[in-house]
Amino acid sequence: MSTKPFLSIDGQIELLKTRELKITSEEYDQASEFFLDNNYYRISGYSLTLRNNDVFSEKASLDALMQIYNADRRMRHVMLSIIEVIEIRIKSMLAYFHCEKYGPIGYLDINNFSCLNGGKINLKIVNNYLHITRKGDNQKKAMSESELFIKHHKENKNNILPFWVYIEVLTISDASKLYTMLDKELQKKIASQLGFNYSKGPDIVENLLHCVTILRNISAHAGRLYNRLFITKPKLSTSEKKQLRIDNETVVNNKLFSYILVLKSLTHINDFKLVIDHISEIYKQNPLVDFKYYGFPDNWRNVLEQTSN
Hints:
Layout: H1 9-18, H2 28-38, H3 40-44, E1 51-52, E2 55-56, H4 62-102, E3 116-117, E4 120-121, H5 123-142, H6 148-156, H7 163-166, H8 172-181, H9 184-193, H10 201-220, H11 238-242, E5 246-247, E6 250-251, H12 256-265, H13 269-285, H14 300-305
Antiparallel strand pairs: 1-2, 3-4, 5-6
């Protein structure tokens, strides 16, 4: 199998110039540093909206490419900052309501989760439970010397952690799966607390938490959000769907903006205002970035500023 030959930084820049990307002689050193620091292959994904196949548009420039790339990096940081708030909130509710019903160490008993479905064992729930608890135990061991709260329970509490402590070693992905494993009563209680106080609330929350996990993983691993098409579509309300961008008579429900509406629905207003402020800064400081590729409607700020759950 043949692969493309190695290209030096100089060769990469010259190749882009032959494809009509505007890079002036004054920008050459800046371009060299940019490509060496960020990987030519990685950067090429950010150039897709600036070119048709391998030919760049007349407006395409190094400045535009760098603005798209740097704006996306900042956008990931904004997403992670609010996902942290959501993760803490969801984990707190999981531990609180589960302990309220089953006690501090009730999570150690698989029967305190919905492992039965119509009298039959739900193997998916069982496997998820075993996966999460094994991973949590491994994480607990790894943190036993570096984290005082783990060390305290190891030395003074027979290494038994109440759920409100154990939850701290789990991830948002674990929390998302744990929610699906709760009995219906607890699912409804948490959904109601989050503002989804209707019959389909638990199903909606399950979908939204899965979306948060997807966005977290992409952002945490420096994945591209700009012009990304998300496979999993969030279950938005009718009013939220009306706020989405429409391109060619099609509602855009598979780009970042729909996921931002998910984050909005799971946070308090004051926390989400910071997200709006940070996105506004990115928008103002990067005028060459077309936010339609994030799925943003033209009135995006008004949409995000509307009262949320």
